[in-house]
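re: ur question from earlier - yeah i can do the single chain one, its not a big deal. heres the input i used so u can compare w yours
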Amino acid sequence: MTSLPRWTARDGKRPTQRDGRPASSTDASTWVTFDRVADRPHGVMLGDGLACWDLDGVIDCDGQLHPDAAEVLRQVGTRSLWVERSMSGQGLHVFVHGPELPAQVGKRVSYYSRERFIAVSGESLTTCAR
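and the output i got, formated as tokens:
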């Protein structure tokens, strides 16, 4: 995933170019390689086969996963590229290779696969404190 030239810096959840100007989820000229933004808060643009299951409010105070999240993780299995806690600490991002489809937005589980920015936390689900 880090080899894809689909990365931008970010200000909160807003994608920016390295110089602070806005980055666009539809204009690849505003994206860079991971190594160009690894030293600052950053995120990735979805598309070209990179997709993300965005799971909101699925980790409780005890670190237990909501059944909806467990089901997505079961279905994705070893096909995930990266699984991390979202910036809120109560959600997950499950990055996968996936088809470009219209956004599928649900209460807890959403799937995005094109023209979308995901602010990454870098906090792997397997290494985060519970």
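Residues 67-76 form the longest helix (10 residues). not sure if urs matches, ping me
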